[in-house]
Amino acid sequence: MKQYSLFIGGARIETATYADVCNPSTGEVVGQMPLATPADLDHAVAAASVAFRTWSQVSEEERQVACRAIAEKIAANGEELARLLTLEQGKPLNGLGSRFEIGGALAWTRHTAELNLPVEILQDDNEGRVELHRKPIGVVGSITPWNWPVMIACWHIVPAVRAGNTVIIKPSPLTPLSTIRLVEIMNEVLPPGVVNVITGENSIGAALSSHDGIAKMTFTGSTETGKKVMASAVATLKRLTLELGGNDAGIVLPDADPALIAEGLFWGAFINNGQTCAALKRLYVHDSIYEDVCSRLADYAGKIVIGDGLDETSILGPVQNEMQFNKVRELVDDARANGGRILVGGTPIDRPGYFYPITLVADVDHGVRLVDEEQFGPALPIIRYKDIDEVIARANSNPAGLGGSVWSADAEKAKRYAMQLECGSVWINKHGTIQPNAPFGGVKQSGMGVEFGTEGLKEFTTIQTVLS
Question: Whole-model pTM above 0.70?
C-alpha cells in the first residue's frame, strides 16, 4: 500500500504515522495519508515564509509563466489525477465526474494565469499623483473539502501564487491523495516552498488557521467549520475568504415548460451526487405545473446509472463518506415520516459502499429537515407554491445565501424575480454553472469574499496607496 508524503520546501517529508484513505465505492484502502505534526506545520510555515521573500518580488510576467506551466503539468498528468480522485472521492471517471473536475481545474488555472492587476492611477494633476498598488499578502493557508478536492485546490492555490503569495494547503482527510499529487507536480515548475501540502485530521487544520505565521486563510467547507476558522483568525487579524454551505433555492414559474427544464433541474441538483455547495437543494414549483415537473424529474432520474466510479458506464457514484451517507438517510426518513411523498429512491442501495439512490421527495414544506437543512447529497425536496412574492420571501428565509435560480419561458421576467433572491450568484434557467471569469461567493451565512476572475485575484492582495 502506497504511503504518501508531505511536501514542504520542495521536498517530500515522511511522517511517523499514517492513516488509511478508503474508496467509498468498496471500502478498500487506496493509500495512506501522512499525519502531520505541529512541528511539520512550523516547518511548512518557515519554508513558505522564506520562499515569499523572493516569490513576492518576481515579476508579473514570470508569475504568469509559472501558472501557465502549472496548467501544462495538470494537463500532462490529467488521467493519473482523475483516477486517483475517483479512487478516494468516489465520483465516476466519466460524465461530470473526475475527468470533468480535472478539466475544470485546468480551465481555472489557465484563466487565472492570464489575469492582471495593473497599477491604478487615482489622480495625476498639478496637485499630485496618487497610485493604487496591489501587493501580495504573505503566506496563505488553504483548507479544502472532500467534494471537489483537485478543482478547489486550484481555486485556492493558483490565484494566491499568481498574486505573489506562497501557500500551505491542508486537504480534507477523506480525499488528501489527489491534492498531494497535485502539489508534487506543481513543484516541478515552481521554486521550493511556494506551494506546500500538509495532511492530517481536523486538528492540524485548526493549527494552520490559528498559526501566527499565516497572513490569510482561504477556506471552503461547512458554515460551522467556517465560523471556527474565522474565530481562529481573530488573534492575528488574518485576511479571510470563506466559501461556506448553501441551501440553494430554485423557483419554477408557471410558464416554464416541464419537458424543457427537467434535465437542467436534475443536474442543477445532482451534479457530483448533490455534493456541491452551490447545488440546487430546495425546488419550489408552481401549483399549476407541480405534478408535471415531479413526473418529468422522476422519469429523468430513472435513466441515471449509479455505480463504482471506475466503471466507465457509471454516471453517478456513491456518497463520499459514512457521515454524509447517514445524514442523507436521516433527512429522507424524516421527510417520509412528515408526509413526504417519495417519487424515486428513498432507500439505501443494497451493495458495498455508501450508495444512496437519487431521491425525489414531493409534498414537503418548511419545517421539514430536508427543506430547512443542507442535505449535501442525492436527495431533493420539491415544494408546491401558488404566490410568487410569498415564495421569494420563503426562499430568502434560510440563513444560507450562496446561489439561487429562477426558471421561466420569459428570461427577463425570471431575471426580475431572480434579483430579489438573497444570494451571491443567481442563474436563469440553469443552476450552479460557475465559470472562471464570474466572481463567486456567498452572502449571509454562506461566507465572505469572492473567488474567480479579477475580483477573486484581488482577495489575495493588500492595497498600498502611493502619493507623490
Answer: yes
